[in-house]
Amino acid sequence: MTKPRTLWPMPVKGLLDHPDFERLPAAGRGMVISIVLYYWKCQCQPLPTKPSELFIVARAFPPTWKQHKATILRIFKDIQPELDAYHHFRSERKSLIQMVGAKATARARAERLSKNAPARPEIFDAAPARERERYERVATPEERGPRARVVQTMRTR
Prior knowledge:
The mean pLDDT is 76. The chain is elongated, with a radius of gyration of 39 Å. The chain has 8 helices and no strands. It is mostly helical. It has helices spanning 13-17, 19-23, 26-41, 51-58, 62-116, 123-126, 141-144, 146-156. It has a domain at 13-116. Helix 3 (26-41) runs parallel beside helix 5 (62-116).
């Protein structure tokens, strides 16, 4: 399952107060809103440059698009800086909050570890003295007895 993307509230004051937006018919307003929503969902990436792709983004009816295309693009160009500025503000704020949250989480984790950690041992108690290893001499076949001689002679054949 894919993680849903983060969409912040979109600033619409510039769009709603734009005089050309108020004069557009309902179809023209719908096309402007479709373009703005596409731009916002794509995290303020540039719009398509080909006219056919922009036409598809606007979900336009060809005669209406032809009639209002210049007005729609002018409205978008006027409100684009407001959208970019708000998106940049929210992105920076989110990264700042994530950074502060990561520091707080690390600090809380360190406190939990220090509370649960055993008392600090002295440096000499931490590493006990090693005992010397003892090596035993390997017994010869004569010392091991008659059975060892039989096994040894079978291996050599």
